[in-house]
User: What shape does this take?
Amino acid sequence: MADWDLHAFILRRMDLRLAGANWQRGGGKGQKPKAIDLPDGKQKQAAKADGDDIAQRLRNLGLIPTGDAANPPPAREPTAGELAAEADRLWLERQQALITE
Assistant: This one.
C-alpha cells in the first residue's frame, strides 16, 4: 500500500460513497457498487470494538462502576445493549442532578 497516499484513500472512499448513493437513488437496481481494490488486493475492514473494549471505555468515562469488594463483578459479562442502557441511565441521572442543583 506504499503506492497509495492519504489523498488516494480519500478519493477511493468518496468514489464508493457517490456510487452507493447513485445506486440507492436508482432504486437499488443492478449490482451494489464495490470499493476499488487496494494494491495488496484486500478490502479494508472497519475495526469493530468487542464487548470488553466497550465496557472498559465506559468504565474509564465513569459511566459504569468498576468492580470492587462491595460490588463484585457480575457472573457474566454484560452485553453491549445492557452497557448502553446503563450508560444512558447514568447519564440521565447526572443530567437530572445538574438540573436540580
The chain has three helices and no strands. Residues 51-67+74-100 form one domain.
